[in-house]
Every structure is written in structure tokens, then in C-alpha cells.
Write a structure and sequence with these properties.
The structure is a single chain. This protein is an alpha/beta fold. It has two domains: about 170 residues, GTP cyclohydrolase II (Rossmann fold, 3-Layer(aba) Sandwich), CATH 3.40.50.10990; about 220 residues, Dihydrofolate Reductase, subunit A. It has 17 helices and 18 strands. Helix 1 crosses helix 7 and helix 10 packs parallel to helix 11. It is elongated and about 80 Å long.
């Protein structure tokens, strides 16, 4: 099937706007579904350059009158739709593709009600469809793929617990770079339904990826996890959660020859998307993320959690001379509280937004003392800290002996000359070089080495 033939399947016919509890979305109407039509709710610019290298969040949502409109608790559809809009609004960019004709996993409204009646008599949701002569899942996603193409979207981070949905979109030419479940809990009324989907239809299980991650976010370390990504998450991040607070970790991505950016300052991107997802997971597991002023000036980062479920940490900018411009995202976007740490004499604007607090710290020739920064953060109840960049900031905390762990990701690139990564006053003898117990992770084409510096200090 050619692109032209695919686009005919769902043609955009109208555009308007829809104010919701989660913000105002562009609402685009498409023909298709045998005349019922589909809707795309879009937030932000989807066909521009990918934000921070991340594909947009996308929920392909099957219509469910009982769940979406009537608040039924026989399923989780309405809550999934609401959670998807919430996640997209937090990121400020993404889309919900609302698929008509998908009622009852594609069998239609009245047939779904007949299936409900069979479920009332004891059948599960799969057997009920089969007894009525329908497939367990009759949905097709060709029109969803056509809508995504019309939106200029070829790569997505899919908001779904259903791996089959990702497979079908991939078969239709939409690259699913990641799939994340939405944080919707089971209810007593739908436990049997949810269990059937997990056991018989392969949806993410309660012991699977989403729930392991949610447990870690809640500060709990599960005793075990099923094989696959969930066990990877438990192995990789469980020790950080178990370490409790206070905890100071650092993360840095650099080339194989030790540079974090080209000599022009271009750092987009040294490491790959898998390392950026790893970084977002680290952000989600800490109370505060620390960067130097040079990183903000050069990269204008948001320092928020977007690639995975989780709350964004407090952003801490170390800026002794007050160099960060008022237009920086951390100062003008209220995604998360920001502590702007400046020297006693540094000038700052009077009209800062409410999410920004100015913190005056003593500054020496080399900037702020790392131990003074940590003391101030802990005084504010921010005990779990991620030092994210740049190279000088991470190196200063490392040289001060304040890091419990360092995640150093190496990309298979040779930059030759540029902005250096880890640098500190070394030893004259290799026997005296800094070493610690390590673990290594493969992140796409990159290799991440975790240095357990806390074990060395003990």
C-alpha cells in the first residue's frame, strides 16, 4: 500500500479547538470508520524537530461509550483517556487519536452489550466475543497510521499497555520507539476484565514494567520482576531506591574520547535516545536536579521528566555570576520549581515567575562549593540529588568526594576536540587512580558505566 493510498483511508476534513480540563487542544476531524469519522486531539508542534530528540507521546484510543462518556467501571477506558490527556498536557506536546468504530474491540456497541451479558453469566471478555462469533480483538489500525502520517508523525512514544497495538502500528510503518503504560489502577469492578486482558491478551501485567516502575517511583523495591524490561528496571534502578536519602548521583554522556560537545558547543546529541530515557528515569527518582549555568546557556534544557512516567524534580541552577538569561526555559516555564543559585552580588530580574526562587550562596573563584550546595538542598528537604551537567559541574562534585554514584555513558563517537567531560586533578601514578565497583549497561549503541563511589568511600 502506497502512502497516497494510506492517506485516502482517513482524510482531514475539519480543524477546530477543544478546551479541556487538561488544556486547549487542536481538534482535527477525519473521515473514515465507515462514515463515523475519527478525531485527533493535538497539543504542540508534532511535525517540527523532535523535542530533545524524543518522539511525541501518542495515545491511539479506541472509542468506548460506556467508559469514556458514561464512566463505566467495567473497564478502564475512560480513565486511560483522561490519564493520556494529562500526560500529554504535562509534556506540552503529543496527540490522542480517538478511533471510532473500535467499540468493544471492534465488534460494535450493541454486540459489546451482548458480550457484557455473557460476562454477567461468567464468561470472560475474550470468550464472550468468541461465543458471539467475533474475534477476541477485531480492531484495525490502518486509519490510525494514516492520521499519524497526516500529522507528520513517523515515530511515537506509545501510551498503551497493549503490545499488540505497538506491533500493528509498526507493521503499518509507524516506529514505536517506546511503549509506556498509563498509571491507572485496577478497580474491584474491573479486576476480572483486567486480569483477562493480561493473561489472555498479553497486556502489561501488574507485576510488569509499568507496575515495577510505579513501585520504584513510590520508593518501594519489589522483591522480584518478570523477565524482560521490568527486570531490567528493577536491576538498574532498584539499588538507587533502596539507598534511600540522602543520595547524590551524577550522570554524564560523552564521546569515546571524552567530550560532551563539539568545539562549537553543539551537543545535540552525543548519546542516543536510550541514554536520554535513562536520564529521565534518574530525574524521576530524585528530589532535585543540578546543572551549571553554562549548560543552561548552551542547551536551554527543561530538566523535566517526559520520556517516562514520574514527577519532575526541583531544578537547581548554579549560576554564581547571574549569567542565565531571563528567557531560559527553567525560568519562564513553570513545569517544576526552580532554585536559581547566584552569588551575593549577582543581579537578577525583579519580575521572576512564582516558580523561581533566588538562592544566594557564597561564591569563590571556582564558583560554589559543592558541599555548600548539597547542604542548602538538604536544608530544603531535597535529599536525593542528581548532578546532571555539564562536565565541570559533575567533575567538581566528583573531585569533592560527594558522589555516591556516577553514571557515565560513552557513545561510539570520536569528536577529536570539543567541550571536555569528566576532568579533575588526577594522580601521578595509575595505581592511585580513582576506581570503584562498577556495573555496565548497554543503552542502544552506547555503554553506561555505573561507578559505585559510595562503596569506595565506605
Amino acid at each position: 500500500m502506497t502512502d497516497a493510498e494510506v492517506h485516502v483511508l482517513a482524510r482531514r476534513v475539519v480543524a477546530t479547538s477543544l478546551p479541556t480540563a487538561h488544556g486547549t487542544f487542536r481538534m482535527l476531524g477525519y473521515d473514515g470508520a465507515a462514515g463515523l469519522g475519527h478525531v485527533a486531539l493535538v497539543l504542540g508542534d508534532l511535525d517540527g524537530d523532535e523535542l530533545d530528540g524524543l518522539a511525541p507521546l501518542v495515545r491511539v484510543h479506541s472509542e468506548c461509550l460506556t467508559g469514556d462518556a458514561l464512566g463505566s467501571r467495567r473497564c478502564d477506558c475512560g480513565e486511560q483517556l483522561d490519564a493520556a490527556l494529562h500526560e500529554i498536557s504535562l509534556e506540552g506536546r503529543g496527540a490522542v487519536i480517538y478511533m471510532r468504530g473500535h467499540e468493544g474491540r471492534g465488534i460494535g456497541l450493541l454486540a459489546k452489550l451482548h458480550a457484557y451479558a455473557l460476562q454477567d453469566a461468567g464468561a470472560d471478555t475474550v470468550d464472550a466475543n468468541l461465543q458471539l462469533g467475533y474475534p477476541a480483538d477485531a480492531r484495525e489500525y490502518d486509519e490510525a497510521a494514516a492520521i499519524l502520517r497526516d500529522l507528520g508523525v513517523a515515530r511515537v512514544r506509545l501510551l498503551s499497555s497493549n503490545p499488540d497495538k505497538a506491533v500493528k502500528l509498526e507493521q503499518l510503518g509507524i516506529e514505536v520507539v517506546s511503549r509506556q503504560a498509563l498509571p491507572v489502577a485496577d478497580r474491584p469492578e474491573n479486576t476480572f476484565y483486567m486480569t483477562t486482558k493480561r493473561v489472555r491478551m498479553g497486556h502489561d501485567s501488574l507485576g510488569g514494567t509499568a507496575d515495577v516502575w510505579l513501585e520504584l517511583l513510590a520508593g518501594r523495591v519489589p522483591g522480584a520482576a518478570s523477565p524482560g524490561l521490568d527486570s531490567v528496571l528493577l536491576d538498574r534502578y532498584g539499588p538507587l531506591v533502596a539507598a534511600g536519602s540522602p543520595l547524590t548521583i551524577a550522570q554524564l554522556g560523552q564521546s569515546a574520547d571524552g567530550f560532551i560537545a563539539a568545539r562549537s558547543g553543539d551537543a545535540e546529541f552525543v548519546t542516543g535516545a536510550e541514554d536520554r530515557e535513562h536520564l529521565h528515569r534518574l530525574r524521576a527518582l530524585v528530589d532535585a536536579v543540578v546543572v551549571g549555568a553554562s549548560t543552561v546557556v548552551a542547551d536551554d534544557p527543561r530538566l523535566t521528566v517526559r520520556a517516562v512516567p514520574g514527577a519532575s524534580p526541583v531544578r537547581v541552577v548554579l549560576d554564581p555570576r547571574g549569567r542565565v538569561p531571563a528567557t531560559a526555559r527553567v525560568l519562564r516555564e513553570a513545569d517544576s520549581p526552580t532554585l536559581w543559585c547566584v552569588g551575593p552580588e549577582a543581579a537578577v530580574p525583579d519580575d521572576l515567575l512564582p516558580h523561581v526562587a533566588v538562592v544566594r550562596l557564597p561564591a569563590g573563584p571556582d564558583g560554589f562549593a559543592p558541599d555548600a550546595v548539597l547542604a542548602e538542598l538538604r536544608r530544603r528537604g531535597l535529599g536525593r540529588v542528581l548532578v546532571e551537567g555539564g562536565g565541570r559541574t559533575v567533575s567538581s562534585f566528583l573531585a569533592a568526594g560527594l558522589l555516591d554514584r556516577l553514571f557515565l555513558t560513552t557513545a561510539p563517537k570520536l569528536i577529536g576536540d570539543g567541550v571536555p567531560g569528566i576532568r579533575f586533578t588526577g594522580s601521578d601514578r595509575l595505581a592511585d587512580a580513582l576506581s570503584a565497583p562498577v556495573r555496565r549497561f548497554v543503552l542502544g549503541a552506547d555503554i553506561c558505566t555505573e561507578f559505585d563511589l559510595g562503596a569506595r568511600q565506605n
